[in-house]
Write a structure and sequence with these properties.
The chain is mainly α. 69% of the residues lie in helices and 2% in strands. It has helices spanning 3-36, 42-54, 58-71, 73-76, 82-101, 108-131, 138-150, 154-171, 178-197, and strands at residues 205-206, 225-226.
Length: 231
């Protein structure tokens, strides 16, 4: 195995670790917001509302909603990646696993720090799995697909989607509160910060130098391109 191939393999491994660590941490951080009981992120409000309605665990509800949103990619002609499909399952399983480990919390003295921790870890998780570059999550892909099809701005499309899911979730019994507001204000700056922290350098380019052709002036061959195709 050449040095370039070895570096490319290492780069791919690091991306996979970041992807699955980020998705698992995302689910765990969302579960902490549930246990804090001071308000959830927009999609979490919808998931909790559907849980109240159906009696299904919030992690399984997250998986079902993610799968339904992924189906909406078909008419939008969005192409999912490994990260997209993994997002559907890993986040929900991590949520239910964390909720099974972390019991109910009593008193604002513990619930407020847990809420803040959940929001910060959610930002860390976002930086991890996005920096892996294996494709957007189902909900983010819905946003970018609608942006392309309708011609509306990302800001308008995202706001419309999140208002719709928050209102629907709240009407179904989902939890709104200080955590919802703090999340909305903090997640953008946190995600931007941790995207910079976890940014991966581009993989090394492989250069192929064939034997010189017959004649007095050899011709240099340009680099062959990246060893791993970008997502």
């Amino acid at each position: 195995m050449s040095d370039t191939t070895a570096r490319s393999t290492t780069h791919l491994t690091r991306r996979l670790v970041r992807l699955y660590a980020g998705l698992a941490l995302y689910g765990a951080s969302s579960a902490l917001l549930v246990r804090a009981g001071l308000g959830l992120e927009p999609w979490g409000v919808l998931h909790q509302g559907l849980t109240e309605l159906t009696g299904i665990s919030i992690g399984v509800v997250s998986i079902i909603v993610g799968a339904i949103v992924l189906l909406l990619w078909i008419p939008l002609r969005q192409r999912p990646g490994l990260g997209t499909v993994s997002n559907v399952f890993v986040v929900g399983l991590a949520m239910d696993g964390t909720l099974a480990l972390v019991g109910g919390l009593d008193g604002f003295g513990i619930r407020i720090p847990v809420m803040v921790l959940g929001i910060v870890l959610n930002g860390v998780a976002t930086g991890l799995y996005i920096s892996a570059r294996f494709g957007p999550g189902p909900r983010d892909g819905l946003m970018t697909g609608l942006n392309r099809v309708t011609g509306r701005s990302i800001r308008l499309v995202r706001t419309a989607i999140e208002v719709a899911v928050v209102v629907t979730g709240f009407l179904l019994g989902g939890s709104l509160g200080a955590g919802t507001v703090l999340y909305a204000l903090a997640i953008g700056p946190l995600a931007q910060l941790f995207l910079r922290v976890f940014e991966l350098p581009a993989p090394a380019k492989a250069t192929v130098t064939p034997a010189p052709p017959a004649g007095p002036d050899p011709v240099a061959t340009p680099p062959s391109g990246q060893a791993i195709l970008p997502q």
